Amino acid sequence: MTPVTMDKTIEANGVKYRWPKKPTVVVCIDGGDPRYLQHLLSEGAIPNIAKFIKNGFSTVADGTMPSFTCPNNMSIITGTPPSKHGISGNYYLDTKTGEPVVMTGPELLRGDTIISKFANAGARVVSITAKDKLRKQLGKNLDVSKGNISFSSEFAARCTMNENGIENVLELVGMSQPDMYSMELSLFVLEAGIKLLKRDRPDLMYLSLTDWVQHKYAPNESEAKRFYQQLDNCFGRLADMGAVVALTADHGMSDKSNADGEPNVIWLQDILDSKFGKGDTKVVCPITDAFVAHHGALGGFVRVWCRGKATAKEIIETIAGIDGIEQALDRENICKLFDLPPDREGDVAVISREDVCIGGSKSDHDLRGLEGHRLRTHGGTSEAKVPIIINFPLNDEYLLKASVSTLNSYQIFDYAINGI
Questions:
Q1: Residue 404: count of CB within 10 angstroms of its CB
Q2: Do 135 and 152 touch, CB atoms closer than 8 A?
Q3: What is the CATH number of domain 5-88+103-253+380-418?
Q4: Residue 287: its pLDDT value, please?
Q5: Which of 22, 76, 137 has its CA nearest to residue 407?
Q6: Which of 14, 96, 180, 324 has the fewest CB atoms within 10 Å, i.e. is most exposed?
Q7: What are the tens digits of pLDDT across the range 270-303?
């Protein structure tokens, strides 16, 4: 970093960012519900995070709705709500074909990422994700031929200079290829970030984890504690190397099982088929991704498209009184309430209560991966509160801004770069 670049400002999606004075590392703790931190802080189990809170800045922020991985990561990396960047779930319905479409293609992301704008201005940036489903979208327009790096721990063993800007990642990190369903998939992301911070001193890093642990273990369980203690150790090592470390999450996590330990599910497609006839409506569960063993494709937010005679008003009237349904809103109102893109929204959006999840047809969901564990999942407003923690105190301007309104998680780059 040269003295000249220190005076630069970069604009991304209408926000001006100064040039980072220190390497800045933003971490998205997937599934990082504030309740984990509250519990472990009370036990004194995460001393580095405790030090960040004491000496820096912390708050509970509003995450993006629906509270799923893709829309929240894209909000964070662009600094904008879904109405601007266009990613409103892990899946949406292509109304031309009638088929659900995965929302992870970079061509679906509208606008620029903050890291690509910095990279194009001469900064060195690094983006590391746990799951490869996010990598290409996070790395949109990021030129890895100019010293920038973008890869996932899922495919760490496959990295090439041409595709990722790095190779021999397993050797660099000193870990074997982690299993998809393990805490090591997240820890690999952090260990790789630590190695690259030491080796390259990049200007900006974005490290996005996976929520396998939080789906399986509640805040008071020993495996959750073990995981967070290892996260805490990594965060402390990043800070010890002089980095600004900014922590947030994409969503929280709630127990959605009944007293017998079985998933507490509203099978919405079955209910609508019974009322309006099969094929008249289409329920899409936008939590769905390639790794449904985490959650069985069950979450707290689903979309319904009208495919026949049923109207949005009739669908809302049919389901609004069902026990466990918190909200059922038409396209106009859900977009207005949560700043969502209308062209990718259903005719009706349905949000469940904290202890309840919503599915399509019971026959379409494979719940074998949940055996032996209570269903813990996300998607609704009950999982939309997330932490923001920065290991440096805010300047007066940003401290005032933070004191007069609730922050959005997508402001974390602004606060980590401009606010300290």
A1: 6
A2: yes
A3: 3.40.720.10
A4: 84
A5: 76
A6: 96
A7: 999 999 999 999 999 988 754 544 546 899 999 9
Residue 363 pLDDT > 90: no
- Give me the sign of the Cα torsion angle 216, 219, 222, 226: positive
Q: What is the distance between the alpha carbons of residues 27 and 293, in angstroms, rounded to a whole number?
A: 24
Angle between helices 47-55 and 34-42 (to 10 degrees): 100
b or e along 59-69 (b: 16 or more beta carbons within 10 Å of the residue's beta carbon)? bbbbbbbbbbb
- For the whole prediction, is pTM greater than 0.85? yes
Got the DSSP string for 306-360? E-SS--HHHHHHHHTTSTTEEEEEEHHHHHHHHT--GGG--SEEEEE-TT-EEES
- Selection from 276, 223, 288 nearest residue 70 by Cα: 288
- 20 DSSP assignment: P
| Structure tokens given for 300 | 């707290």
User: What is the model's pLDDT at position 289?
Assistant: 57
Count of C-beta atoms within a 10 Å radius of residue 418: 18
Upstream peptide bond of 393 is cis (omega within 30 degrees of 0): no
Bridging pattern class, strands 348-352 and 301-306 = antiparallel
- Check residue 99 and give its pLDDT: 79
Exposure letters 224-238 (e unless 16+ CB within 10 A, then b): bbebbebbbebbbbb
Work out the percent of the chain whose per-residue pLDDT is above 70. 95
Q: Where in the chain is the domain with CATH 3.40.720.10?
A: 5-88+103-253+380-418
Numbered ranges of CATH 3.30.1360.110 in the chain: 265-377
Nearest residue to 126 (alpha-carbon basis) of 153, 144, 109: 144
116/157 Cα distance (integer angstroms): 24
Instruction: Determine the distance from the C-alpha atom of residue 175 to the mean position of all C-alpha atoms in its chain, rounded to a whole number.
Output: 25
Question: The CATH number of 265-377 is which of 3.40.640.10, 3.30.1360.110, 3.40.190.10, 3.90.1150.10?
Answer: 3.30.1360.110
Pairing of strands 9-12, 15-18: antiparallel
Token pair in block for residue 228: 């967070």
